[in-house]
Design brief:
Length: 238
Amino acid sequence: MSDDALFPLELVQAEALRAGPRLVAPGAVHVPHWLSLEQQRWIVERFVEWTHGPVPLRAATLPGGHQMSVRTVCLGWHWQPYRYTREATDVNGLSVLDFPDWMVRLGRKAVATAYSSGGGVDDSLAELPASYTPDAALVNFYEHGATMGMHQDKDERSNAPVVSLSIGDECIFRFGNTQTRTKPYSDVQLRSGDLFVFGGPSRFAYHGIPKVLQGTAPEGCGLSYGRINITMRVTGMS
């Protein structure tokens, strides 16, 4: 049986249903407890497989020679500052793994959950889930001390929402505005299993991870230390 058939997409966390989506900014929605522990463990198993694929987990080097503290493996398209390529020309020249079908379905469900009617979300965003087709994922691994500076996700040629999933240690997710890296911003505590979607007016908001809270991963999530963050994007490239 394929991975696409095995992913337990039908599971819905009771905690997520109780908490519901929380609007952080226009178009930016936090859904706590969205992934069950079973789903988290299954994704961690896939993560281990991805890191043993053709392009290994690596820390990208920014212009100027600064190496990021976060290590990344990509699906569908390979991200390197500041562009997408099919081959990892900054690593070993090999093509990255395909973007899995189950992740397309998961991305659509994520957008549908975040932009369901009510909760202060603009009605125009409620029409996005049916057509949402992510084709790239940056899978980031945060070990102890790893952070992510404030930045915009603007290397894509599409303004479709970004879907972010967290597994493992909790983190402080700083979500800002579209004009500057500085205030105003909101600090959101993301826990294992949480979903965060940002699109519409917040699609190009600055955001970052100033701190990961070591040793907070819940038992049973499949990750003994660190944090996995999957961000799905629509590149708009062919």
